[in-house]
Amino acid sequence: MGLTAHHFSARFWALIGATFLGFLGIGTVLPGLAPHVRYDLHGSDQTVGFVIGTFSAVALFSRFFSGSLVDRRGRRIALMVGMCSCALSGGAYLLPIGLSGAYLGRALQGFGEACLYTGAAAWAVELGGMSRSAQALGYLSSGIWGGISAGPVVGHWLGSFERAAMMQVVFALAAAAVLSRIPEDYTPPKHNRARIWIPTKLIPPGIAIGFVNVHYPVIAGFLILHLANHGNSGPAAFSTYAGVILLSRFFLGGLPDRIAPSITFNGGLCLMAIGLVIIASGPPPVLAIAATGLLGLGFSFPWSSVASTVLKATPVDQRGSTLGALSAFYDLFVGLSSFAAGMVAKRFGYPAAFLMAAVSIVIAGFAGRFVFRGKVADPVEEEVAA
Asked: What separation in angstroms does the CA of 329 have from each of 89, 272, 338?
């Protein structure tokens, strides 16, 4: 099917489906993990935090390896490695080795997630074509967000952490089976380029992406607590936030392909900043829900706007490394802002944490000026037909 065709190919949707299954497995163990560590393994509250944080720490450092793996060995191999790591993670949770099994499971899960996203994003862009890269990334994000959102529902329905861990193995192996049936056109280069962990050109887009995502730990950690004193609309507001992101990335993800990505980037930032300021003001329930919807709508565009712009100027054999580096900025900023938001909220109150996130959006806008200035070069490699 040609690149100008309206629909994406069956190979593309198979990739999205496999990615959904992988992240569905990751999400399945989430609701039972903390109680499992705290009550079954007799860990402290601090231990719960360390176990959960292991995922992010390992994922951050694995981005660089996964990007190199995607470029040097191929997209499908990287994805298969990620799925196998997720399957081993589920098995590690079931080992009779106490807290060591929980740490090992989270570490394998973090490594697997790094390989999953980097490989899937590089492959999705190529199957969709660079002219539709933002839309391809939007569909991929919908699959990932859908899996992470539906996973806890499945985990709760299963009724025990052990069953959830076994289901993670099943989902990962099912995804690997789907991936094994998808033909890959990418051929790794015979002579690998010298590795640069973070090229200078990726620093501005990485900083922009990082500051855009400062708001996420604020929303995840303090939205419900903050709105509990303002009509208790937190659960409905968070569901609205997540639902709008899922739907807008699926139906509106192609906007950065049709209009200037700088417009969708800055427009998204404006919506995010407005939403955060309204939330910080302690609004009544209806306005709070509308504000989180506005925040979710705005958040749907910056990543695809930046990533598609950068990828269009990136050689095909460096796209995995580029995506890995950009994702590392996300992990780093989310991790650091989690601590910062906690300190700000403790000292100045919940509204200050949301205002901190709004200021971060402004900084992201300044960084974005260095991403979108000038004309993006045409891709140096031929696109893969979808």
From this structure: 24, 19, 14
pLDDT of residue 4: 38
Average pLDDT, the chain: 91
**Residue limits of CATH 1.20.1250.20 in the chain:** 10-179, 200-372
**Closest by alpha carbon to 309, among 301, 317, 298?**
301
Single out the residue of 378, 384, 373 nearest to residue 311, CA to CA: 378
CA nearest neighbour of 130 among 303, 11, 304, 265: 304
Pick among 3.10.310.30, 3.40.50.10490, 2.30.30.140, 1.20.1250.20: CATH of 200-372: 1.20.1250.20
Nearest to 331 by CA among 248, 217, 244: 217
> What's residue 378's pLDDT?
46
Q: For residue 329, what pLDDT is reported?
A: 95
pLDDT tens for each residue of 76-95: 999 999 999 999 999 999 99
CATH number, span 10-179? 1.20.1250.20
